[in-house]
């Protein structure tokens, strides 16, 4: 990764697009292009070869999931391309499609209305750009509430820990939230992965991807 993250931004609302350009520039990103439609997004990424794409899901020309479909296409062409999609609503199918693209890393699914701290938003983009995963907690909770529950073997505490793991929190952060020791969280995570027949792994991003992959496959 270069020291400055190069971004292509796709957002059809002009005021929001210009606001995001200003925000990204303010936090040290280099905006290579800012476009307003899915075809323009495809062209801009292929021309500028950025490190990160930030795109709305609903884009012209069809104003449906054009932005997402463009992002998935680009990830098929460049599995190492970091992509963060922005949405107005929880749509777990869209999140699954994005997480299934490329190698499953360097992806984010954020709800626009829940971005309340611009510095935190910028940090999330940086985390995704270097290989992380960021899934909005509401999307995680939606996945955890599926009618056919693949998590029946987990205890209530293990479900709670799993939700926090899937949001991208480290063991230390989970311990602080739940007021338990980090060792206790590590034990819970090991039990969760064992019960889900997933190999234990200390890498937070891989744990998130493994958990979400299991949820998608069992829904």
UniProtKB/TrEMBL annotation:
Stored Pfam families: GerE, Response_reg
Gene Ontology molecular function: any one: DNA binding
CDD domains, alphabetized: LuxR_C_like, REC_NarL-like
SUPFAM superfamilies listed in its UniProt record: C-terminal effector domain of the bipartite response regulators, CheY-like
Domain HTH luxR-type: 147-217
PROSITE patterns the record matches: HTH_LUXR_2 (PS50043), RESPONSE_REGULATORY (PS50110)
Ranges where the Response regulatory domain occurs: 6-127
Positions of post-translational 4-aspartylphosphate modification: 56
Alphabetical keyword list: DNA-binding, Phosphoprotein, Transcription, Transcription regulation
GO biological process assignments: phosphorelay signal transduction system; regulation of DNA-templated transcription
The protein's name: Two component transcriptional regulator, LuxR family
């Amino acid at each position: 990764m270069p020291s400055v993250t190069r971004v292509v931004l796709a957002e059809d609302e002009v005021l929001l697009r210009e606001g995001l350009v200003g925000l990204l520039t303010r936090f040290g990103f280099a905006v290579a292009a800012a476009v307003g439609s899915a075809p323009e997004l495809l062209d801009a990424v292929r021309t500028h070869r950025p490190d990160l794409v930030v795109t709305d899901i609903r884009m012209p020309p069809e104003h449906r999931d054009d932005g997402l479909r463009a992002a998935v296409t680009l990830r098929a062409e460049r599995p190492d391309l970091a992509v963060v999609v922005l949405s107005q609503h929880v749509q777990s199918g869209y999140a699954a499609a994005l997480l299934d693209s490329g190698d499953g890393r360097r992806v984010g699914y954020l709800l626009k209305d829940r971005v309340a701290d611009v510095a935190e938003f910028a940090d999330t983009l940086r985390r995704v750009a270097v290989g992380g995963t960021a899934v909005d907690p509401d999307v995680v909770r939606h996945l955890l509430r599926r009618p056919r529950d693949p998590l029946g073997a987990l205890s209530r505490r293990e479900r709670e820990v799993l939700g926090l793991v899937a949001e991208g929190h480290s063991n230390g952060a989970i311990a602080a939230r739940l007021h338990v020791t980090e060792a206790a969280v590590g034990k819970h995570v090991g039990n969760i992965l064992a019960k889900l027949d997933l190999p234990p792994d200390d890498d937070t991003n891989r744990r998130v991807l493994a958990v979400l992959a299991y949820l998608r496959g069992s829904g």
